[in-house]
Amino acid sequence: MLKDHQRTSVGDSSTPAPxxxxxxxxxxxxxxxxxxxxxxxxxxxARLRQNGSSILPVLKAGKYIGIVNEPQLARVLGAGVxxxxxxxxxxxxxxxxxxxxxxxEALRRTEFGGTLVVVDADGHLGGILSSIDLWPRRRHxxxxxxxxxxxxxxxxxxxxxxxxxxxxxxxxxGTGVVMSLMMIVALLASNYISELAPGVGISQSTRDTxxxxxxxxxxxxxxxxxxxxxxxGAEHQVVxxxxxxxxxxxxxxxxxxxxxxxxxxxxxxGAGIFTSILYSPWGNSRDYQELKLLTAAIVTVxxxxxxxxxxxxxxxxxxxxxxxxxxGIRAGEMLLERYASSPxxxxxxxxxxxxxxxxxxxxxxxxxxxxxxxxxxxLNLPEPLRVL
Length: 388
Description:
With 388 residues, this protein is mainly alpha-helical. The protein contains 13 helices and nine strands. The chain folds into two domains: 4-134, CBS-domain (Roll); 148-258 and 317-385, no CATH class.
């Protein structure tokens, strides 16, 4: 049994009562199939199967006289009763409720299960009602089958390929700028650290490998501490909520995972695993190239999602702030609204590529690298800044 503090009550001020509990049973009842008392048990079983309920009302001359239910029909089947016998011999009294009673009264009577039959004082059937019918009806929202997105310094960007929601394409350009600057900082840091490391006994290829590894680690650290990680987390949680057909409510979205199987982090992880093995120092002779290629492919197939998921959870996303989550919700609501009103929801391949945001991102990144390179050459800055 439920404890007192677990029961739902209309008078409980801690949780507002759903509006459905204030409606009358007549409004809340759902239609039901029926059988007449002269119909066969076989027909009753067939209609009970179609009814989507555990009971089936029985009528006599158009008026309600009782029900048949699954346990009763199971007993009939087990006893070997002729399936052509009339239903009248097996009618049970059902729990009834008057149409003008409230949803709260219906909830009180169905709190521990069961289905009520709505019958007026003259015996006319008005439908059936169970506790699940007392839950508020959810608004139907047309949802896309595929959603992509991107985290930006200015908020969340989402797209179905045909329509987009959230921040503008200029925000994606800004993302390219920020990520390019982060990569430049990581490059400078790795070069500085590698120059401090003693070079005795270390080959140039090893120094290059260490320098590249340090650059990636520094970039990942910058990504983790930047606001982009929080916005990235908000993007994933909102996409999960839409795909789970949940309402875009903060307390619901907060429960969603931050790891998403379609995140670009997985692709970056896969590329990193593949190239790390393919260009590793071992087996550089021509005899081992095919073996290295095969090993790289097999390891990548088995590990890219696992490594990508780890990076998403602990590096590229983090718990979003309230403002970041609000940005994700606005993007999601805008996307769903535009998707529902879009005359053509199937995007062409060029349209999908453009709306993915990859071109504005690349434009921002390449433009920043070019500008820093030009400034490095004009101002005679350190070498890494002159050869980006």
